[in-house]
């Protein structure tokens, strides 16, 4: 049976399908999650330690020997994808509060907008960019996690985020980064971590979501995903065009939501319980944004590349 192959045909499938399965179990077979021992530890409570391991592995893949051109492109992408959208969404939070408007909570919008899908970036950079663009994957490695979300909420005062949570969010990354640069074999050993951990922590996250909230959050999540694609993809393209002076479509490819970000709302709610009322809807909204951006961004990037080549 080609189960893995079939799941991977769905954009973001290795994240989204286990998430949905976990939600089905939560809704119809909740007793399974309460068996105790290893069953409960993995399928109900396993998300945070598995995500921490993935963050260690991500840090281990970043080398101090990256070229200047790669670091410049990384900085530009972080500006377009994380810093500028983050400030704009914080303004949204000041105006409308944590609940936002029309079901678009501050938590869901911030999480969906300020991180990017590194795997999709690498795939598109290989086709529409060059080796430096591929190296700029570092931007996704840095913003793909809870650190920037916690930092924005904490510094803005919109969330009561203790500094220890912000520091704790980046320590696993630093451990991986330092160890990976000291010992290349450790970096190589950690490469498969994403493929191993993502389906399991996704199921655990889904096990905290009732299917009814998933249907409610799915529609608004689609709208968020379209907005993420258009707004942050355009910012990425314009940053390449006017800051890097490159007439390239690859900048648009940053307009995605990372699969790992589905875990971030739970991490924020753990740091600041005032966000817990928004968690049940924010998580499926972010999951929907992951899927929508994974579909739209390659289409837009390809179309933009054809237009630029024809001009």
Strand-helix topology:
Elements (H helix, E strand, L loop, with lengths): L2 H6 L4 H16 L8 H7 L3 H14 L7 H29 L9 H8 L4 H11 L2 H5 L2 H6 L3 H10 L6 H20 L1 H7 L2 H14 L4 H32 L21 H8 L4 H35 L1
Helix pairs in contact: 2-13, 2-16, 4-11, 4-12, 4-13, 5-6, 5-10, 5-14, 6-14, 6-16, 10-11, 11-12, 14-16, 15-16
Question: What does this protein look like?
Answer:
This protein is mostly helical and 311 residues long. The chain has one domain (3-310): Na+/H+ antiporter like fold (Up-down Bundle). Helices cover 73% and strands 0% of the residues. The protein is built from 16 helices and no strands. The chain has helices spanning 3-8, 13-28, 37-43, 47-60, 68-96, 106-113, 118-128, 131-135, 138-143, 147-156, 163-182, 184-190, 193-206, 211-242, 264-271, 276-310. Helix 4 (47-60) crosses helix 11, helix 4 (47-60) packs across helix 12 and helix 14 (211-242) packs parallel to helix 16. The longest helix has 35 residues, at 276-310. The chain is globular, with a radius of gyration of 19 Å.
Distance between the termini: 47 Å
Content-based structural category: mainly alpha
Task: Write down the domain tally.
Answer: 1
Task: Output the radius of gyration.
Answer: 19 Å
Number of strands: 0
User: What overall form do the CA principal axes indicate?
Assistant: globular
Q: Biggest sheet: strands, sense, closure?
A: none
- The pLDDT mean sits at 87
Supply the number of helical segments: 16
Question: Helical amount among residues, as a percent range?
Answer: over 70%
Question: Approximately what portion of the residues adopt beta-strand conformation?
Answer: under 5%
Low-pLDDT ranges: none
Here the CATH topology equals: Na+/H+ antiporter like fold
Q: What's the CATH architecture?
A: Up-down Bundle
GO molecular function: 2-keto-3-deoxygluconate:proton symporter activity
Family: Belongs to the KdgT transporter family.
Transmembrane segments: 12-33, 45-64, 76-95, 101-124, 136-155, 161-180, 215-238, 250-269, 281-304
GO cellular component, one term: membrane
């Amino acid at each position: 049976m080609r189960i893995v192959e079939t799941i991977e045909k769905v954009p973001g499938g290795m994240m989204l399908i286990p998430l949905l399965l976990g939600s089905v179990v939560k809704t119809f077979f909740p007793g399974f999650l309460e068996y105790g021992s290893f069953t409960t530890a993995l399928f109900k409570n396993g998300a945070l330690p598995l995500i921490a391991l993935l963050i260690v592995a991500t840090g281990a893949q970043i080398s101090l020997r990256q070229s200047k051109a790669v670091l410049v492109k990384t900085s530009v992408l972080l500006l377009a994808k994380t810093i500028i959208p983050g400030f704009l969404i914080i303004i949204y939070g000041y105006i409308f509060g944590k609940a936002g408007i029309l079901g678009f909570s501050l938590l869901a919008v911030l999480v969906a907008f300020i991180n990017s899908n590194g795997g999709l970036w690498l795939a598109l950079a290989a086709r529409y960019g060059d080796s430096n663009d591929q190296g700029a994957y570092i931007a996704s490695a840095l913003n793909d996690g809870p650190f920037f979300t916690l930092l924005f909420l904490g510094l803005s005062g919109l969330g009561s985020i203790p500094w220890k949570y912000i520091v704790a969010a980046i320590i696993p990354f630093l451990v991986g980064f330092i160890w990976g640069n000291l010992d290349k074999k450790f970096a190589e050993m950690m490469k498969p971590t994403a493929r191993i951990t993502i389906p399991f922590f996704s199921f655990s996250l889904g096990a905290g979501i009732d299917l009814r909230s998933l249907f409610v959050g799915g529609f608004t999540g689609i709208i968020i995903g379209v907005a993420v694609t258009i707004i942050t993809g355009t910012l990425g393209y314009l940053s390449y065009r006017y800051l890097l002076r490159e007439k390239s479509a690859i900048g648009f490819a940053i307009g995605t939501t990372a699969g790992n970000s589905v875990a971030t709302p739970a991490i924020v709610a753990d740091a600041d319980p005032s966000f817990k009322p928004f968690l049940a809807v924010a998580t499926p909204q972010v999951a929907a944004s992951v899927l929508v951006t994974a579909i739209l961004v390659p289409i837009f990037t390809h179309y933009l590349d054809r237009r630029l080549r024809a001009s």
